[in-house]
């Protein structure tokens, strides 16, 4: 079974570099996170790239399925089943036994992960590992879908807890800006998390927000109106 180790600035970059080297799509590999990225001291000294192991999964087609495919063309696959299978394989490679519950809405498909063991391994620092896994899950699902799917991946209600944390942080920092009359620049955040900050303060009487910088270091700025 072929496997490689790839690295990159983020987990997504590392996985994409590995997929490029193997010349396969995300659904053809099992991914294990070996090292998470670290900025190091002052963002320079001791900086460490993300490192992942990709194991190529052989394609095994049962004889009965071969006959069906031969007679009727390529058999369609359920995008969500393939996404769930991918998540389960990743979790298993991390030694986790999980369950996945689907919650559908108008705007998105939500897959909620639960189970025993340390699901914090799937969440990562401030949800970085969960975001990376969500990115890969969307690649896998859309490979088998005729229309674009947007899947939100959650574990132990992390998304809701993080949203509440960011809303509380927004209110506290807005108050700080009003008192000190000095703008506040937040740490780099994902587009989803920046949107939470902007939405929470969009109707504030005394402060406004905007984003600056380039991904993945784009930040929210809170300043006086």
Automatic annotation (TrEMBL):
Stored NCBIfam families: Jag_EloR
Family: Belongs to the KhpB RNA-binding protein family.
GO cellular component terms given for this protein: cytoplasm
InterPro entries according to UniProt: Jag_KH, Jag_N_dom_sf, KH_dom-like_a/b, KhpB, KhpB_N, R3H_dom, R3H_dom_sf, R3H_KhpB
GO biological process, one term: regulation of cell shape
Database matches in Pfam families: Jag_N, KH_KhpA-B, R3H
Domain notes: Has an N-terminal Jag-N domain and 2 RNA-binding domains (KH and R3H).
The protein, known as: RNA-binding protein KhpB
Domain R3H intervals: 160-225
GO molecular function annotations of the record: RNA binding
Region (Jag_N domain): 5-55
Subunit text: Forms a complex with KhpA.
Keywords recorded for this protein, A-Z: Cell shape, Cell wall biogenesis/degradation, Chaperone, Cytoplasm, RNA-binding
Organism: Paenibacillus albus
Role summary: A probable RNA chaperone. Forms a complex with KhpA which binds to cellular RNA and controls its expression. Plays a role in peptidoglycan (PG) homeostasis and cell length regulation.
Superkingdom of origin: Bacteria
Subcellular location as annotated: Cytoplasm
């Amino acid at each position: 079974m072929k496997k490689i180790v790839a690295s990159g600035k983020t987990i997504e970059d590392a996985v994409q570099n590995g997929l490029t080297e193997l010349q396969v799509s995300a659904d053809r590999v099992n991914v294990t996170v070996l090292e998470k990225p670290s900025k190091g001291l002052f963002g320079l000294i001791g900086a460490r790239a993300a490192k992942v192991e990709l194991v190529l999964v052989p394609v095994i087609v049962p004889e009965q399925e071969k006959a069906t495919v031969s007679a009727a063309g390529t058999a369609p696959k359920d995008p969500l089943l393939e996404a769930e299978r991918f998540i389960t394989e990743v979790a298993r490679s991390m030694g986790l036994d999980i369950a996945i519950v689907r919650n559908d809405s108008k705007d998105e498909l939500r897959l909620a992960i639960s189970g025993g063991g340390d699901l914090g391994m799937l969440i990562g620092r401030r949800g970085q590992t969960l975001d990376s896994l969500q990115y890969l899950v969307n690649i896998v699902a859309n490979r088998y879908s005729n229309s674009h799917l947007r899947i939100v991946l959650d574990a132990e209600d992390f998304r809701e807890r993080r949203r509440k944390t960011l809303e509380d942080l927004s209110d506290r920092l807005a108050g700080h800006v009003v008192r000190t009359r000095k703008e506040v620049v937040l740490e780099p955040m994902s587009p989803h998390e920046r949107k939470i900050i902007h939405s929470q303060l969009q109707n504030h009487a005394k402060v406004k927000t905007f984003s600056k910088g380039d991904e993945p270091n784009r930040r929210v700025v809170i300043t006086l109106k």
